[in-house]
Amino acid sequence: MSSPTGPDPEPRVEAALVPFTEGDFHALSPALARDPQFNDRRLELRRKLLALAKVFCAQAKARGVALDARTSLHNPNAFNQMQVKRMWTYVCRTKAEKTRLRRTIGAELAKDLDSAYRNAYLCVALEADAIEVSLRIHADAWFDGQNLVHRVRAEGVDGWKRLLNELEGFRLRLADWKGEWPCGALTRERVEEFLKYFTPGEHSLAIEARFPAPFGSRGEALSVEMPARIVEMLVKLIPMYRYAAWSEESDFLFKK
Fold it and tell me: pLDDT of 93-120, one tens digit each?
């Protein structure tokens, strides 16, 4: 996986909720993904995603969680294999929290923390035919994956199962496996099944929801209400983020 941000700086935007348009998705289609003539259109989408993320970060801060937002590249570049088929905004721990984590795991292990995917992160992504809202722990964010596993072992499966089942409409996924664990009615056995296969540092973990867009859908992805709905879904993921990601309040990284 490439770095979520390349050499260009984040665009300057104010926190706002702006509906998506058909052109936002069309600019990510295979026919246009390599075409630099659509960089301006994709930059407009990048600004929308960052503005939406800033709205969410303000709501997260009001709930006691400090997060920073970043975005992916909008132009074909070596970082994205010279094509833009997916654009996203990452929301992850702040610089201050990264500093605390470095003190815990050591500077050598934490040297690449500035790459967003090396932290547990919340994500909103657009592809040509879908919108994704997710919480992700990449294999390279092994410390957050390990923190989650240790917490479940220390407190028992039921606490994590309860949080998963509060996320009806999302699905728990393991790496690129075809299987999935739909949230909302997961049993203890199903959660234990997932944990049996999940190995931090080797596997990625995702809790995601996807919406078809815009073709073949009923216009949901293009609706005026969609950005606010996405923020609501991100807010629903906050308790899971606080449970899984290492922090001073959820410090299970080296505990057995």
Answer: 998 888 888 887 776 666 666 677 789 9
What gap in Å lies between CA 227 and CA 233, rounded to an integer?
10
Are residues 120 and 92 in contact, defined by beta-carbon separation less than 8 angstroms? Answer: yes
User: Which residues, other chains included, contact 15 with Cβ-Cβ below 8 Å and sequence gap of 6+?
Assistant: 51, 54, 55, 57, 58
**CA-atom Rg of the chain in angstroms:** 18
Q: How crowded is residue 139: how many other Cβ atoms within 10 Å of its Cβ? A: 17
CA 70/CA 90 separation, integer angstroms: 5
| 207/135 Cα distance (integer angstroms) | 5
Nearest CA to 82 among 132, 32, 127? 32
Q: Assess contact for 17 and 55: CB atoms under 8 A.
A: yes
Cross-strand bridge partners of residue 208: 134, 171
Q: Please return the burial class of 9, using the count of CB atoms within 10 Å of its CB with bins 0-12, 13-18 and 19+.
A: exposed
